[in-house]
Design goal:
Layout: H1 2-8, H2 31-48, H3 51-55, E1 58-66, E2 69-74, H4 75-88, E3 89-96, E4 101-104, E5 110-123, E6 131-145, E7 148-159, H5 167-170
Length: 172
């Protein structure tokens, strides 16, 4: 189970700890605030183990670059993968190590963010309740459409090393 969890940890790259969780939408008039709001929603979703909340910030499809692989996953594939992952782990903490870096394109239609976090979780199947910790960093891309901002791509890494999600949850 530990290997499967480590291999699924790439998903944790979609979460963080920046922004106000008490309001706002994906459609804020301040684009930097909107991206930080998505980051906060992702963090909240991981801490609650809520796959629907995490996937709510995603575009219809997301390009994932990890360990030399490039994959495109639908929002629903991502949601199912998170649901499987959250059924096996519970997060105790998820905090930014650095203030997220956010850049908005000149035309206001695309953005990117650079994130670095430290998180703690436990495997639900481990009777000892042992807490595990990892550090992760990633760059994510975002697109703006009529419904607001959505994450469209991610390239990530973590320490200790982790890889792409298990085949059973990442592909249809």
């Amino acid at each position: 189970m530990a290997d499967a969890l480590k291999s699924w940890l790439w998903c944790v790259m979609l979460a963080g700890a920046w922004g106000d969780l008490s309001g706002g939408t994906h459609r804020s008039t301040d684009p930097v605030a909107s991206i930080l709001r998505l980051h906060a929603i992702e963090r909240e979703g991981h801490l609650k183990g809520d796959a629907n909340l995490v996937s709510s910030v995603l575009a219809d499809s997301v390009v994932s670059i990890q360990n030399g692989d490039v994959e495109v996953r639908s929002r629903d594939q991502m949601r199912r993968g998170f649901a499987e992952y959250f059924s096996a782990v519970a997060y105790a903490s998820w905090e930014d190590i650095i203030k997220p870096l956010v850049h908005i394109s000149r035309d206001g239609g695309m953005a990117w963010s650079v994130i670095r976090i430290r998180a703690q979780f436990r495997e639900k199947s481990d009777p000892s309740g042992k807490v595990q910790e990892f550090t992760s960093s990633w760059i994510a891309t975002y697109e703006k459409n009529k419904s607001g901002w959505h994450m469209s791509g991610i390239s990530s890494g973590c320490d200790p090393p982790c890889g792409p999600p298990p085949e059973s949850s990442s592909r249809e």
